[in-house]
Amino acid sequence: MTEQERIQKQRNERTQDTTSDVSVDATKGDQLKAELDDLLDEIDEVLEENAEEFVRNYVQKGGE
Amino acid sequence: MAIAKVLGIETEYGIAGGPDMDPITASSIIVNAYAQQGRTRINWDFHGETPELDARGLPGLTSFAPVVETHLANTVLTNGARLYVDHAHPEYSSPECRSPLEATLYDVAGEEVMRRAMVVANESLDAAHAITLYKNNSDGKGNSYGTHENYLLSRDVDFSNVIRAMVPHFVSRQVIVGAGKVGAETDHGQDADPAFQLSQRAEFFEEVVGLETTLKRPIINTRDEPHSDAERFRRLHVIIGDANLSQTATFVKLGSTALLLAALEDEGPDLFPSAPRHPVRAVRSYSLDVSLKTVEICEDGKWRSAWDFQDQLWHVASDYALRTGASAVATPDEVAFVLSQWREMLDGVRDDTESVADRVDWVAKWRIVSGIRDRHDLSDHDARLRAIDLQYHDLRPEKSLAQRVGLRSLLQNDEVREAVHNPPATTRAYFRGQCVARFPDQIAAANWDSVVFDVGDGPLQRVPMMDPLRGTAALTKDLFELSSTVGELLEALDR
Question: Which of A46, B32, B161, B240 is the most buried (most CB within 10 A)?
């Protein structure tokens, strides 16, 4: 796919997304909340178990 | 007519672990692991590096030039990038690219290079000493490291106009391209005690204009080191930016900045909004306010929020593109894509953050930080929230949160894999990358503006590349195909 075709394709996908999103607001809100809940479940799963130690041990020297 | 906006990004990665927990050793292991795997241990040629030269002319008495370290691990990749140890971090400097989307591709290829380097390095280390890399800009304890953009400018542009025009953009673009940060880590940041900030880097900036990059960081960096013909070109070295995990954010960061620079070159600084009277205070206070309501007094007596600045700057860029086509930046389609994404992200952060959580890093990060905080009823300072911040930038696929939050991809996986190995076709990076791929054993050294060959007999031979737009595939592909040895290539170049 050329760059122009790809951008066009992404635009088309976006347009379709937007049209299918025009539904009852309440349903959309519920759906967003359910998606966020699933995401937070996943984050609880992969987050470093000992957050305190993980954060404390991350020390960098300045750069640039 | 603005000159082609050749551009690229250099990123210092955060690093943890290693055999003796020393970041310089660990960074060297990363660079050498990748170089040995690719058999491309090319020396860097420091000829032409002038980080002490100041674009304003005389260097200021209070600023000290950065020191160039010449003894650390370093290599040039077949895609034209430089991979090396800078201070105590592994750094990937992308090859010179010809458009914002291409520069985004090579920045993402850099993530892949670092991920592969991490895997190869860890094969020879025991689990307790495994190295982890982070594409971020601070450790949460007051230490910051950079993500720098570079843009080719005409030497004709007066540097005072760069300052006049670009300060508003550099203090305000964080509303759409900030990477987000839990808490604060400098004295003045901690006084404000924010739960969350828009930017990783904002609180580290202390000056408006200067030569420094490690101390007294300036919003406009004056390093005058064009890595090309200094009679014709400037390289604007932008040190005020966050490392983005969102590809769209990287793309809009590069595209918006390139469009504004082209507009400045073609039409001068009068189009641009008046700068804040206190730019350092502005960049910090904007970062501290996720509601985006903070306003700052400007030189013209008006008060502007970061959003107001971005709105005005979008119109500057959009009008410029309409009038001229902005072909110095990209194709018409790509310019339109920069403008549409910039506009959507800007309207989204004000009106409906959910709608841009797939593109704006700080929104994506704040959404999960506040979500976990509320779910477990945590305080704003809980270590788990800081761990989320750090893990957002983690390059390990099994730990990366950026890979889980639903960020939109602009690039196909196969084109990223190609870009790990192959250079951009339309800049001198093509020549550099092809030389490294074809004749690695005969390259004595290389840098941005030359390749030095050791042909065995006689003196070393330097091939200068003082114009970033030469050495392209169009100009040199045939020469490479006709030359089976370095000698033949050098002869062909002489003709």
Answer: B240
* CATH 3.30.590 holds for B7-416: yes
ipTM for the complex shown: 0.90
Q: B213 and A42 in contact by Cβ < 8 A?
A: no
Contacts of A47 in chain B (CB under 8 A): 372, 384, 387-388, 391
Q: What is the pLDDT of residues B474-492, one digit of tens each?
A: 999 999 999 999 999 999 9
Reading the block at residue B473, the tokens are: 């595939």
Q: Which of B135, B237, B343, B368 to mutate to test the interface with A (most CBs of A within 10 A)?
A: B368
Per-domain boundaries in chain B: 7-416, 428-494
- Residue B16, strand partner residues: B132
CB atoms within 10 A of CB B158: 12
| Model pTM score | 0.92
Cα separation, A11 vs A7, whole angstroms: 6
Question: Tokens in use for B129?
Answer: 């000493």
CB contact under 8 A, A3 and B331: yes
One-character DSSP codes across B217-236: EEEEE-B---SS-TTTEEEE
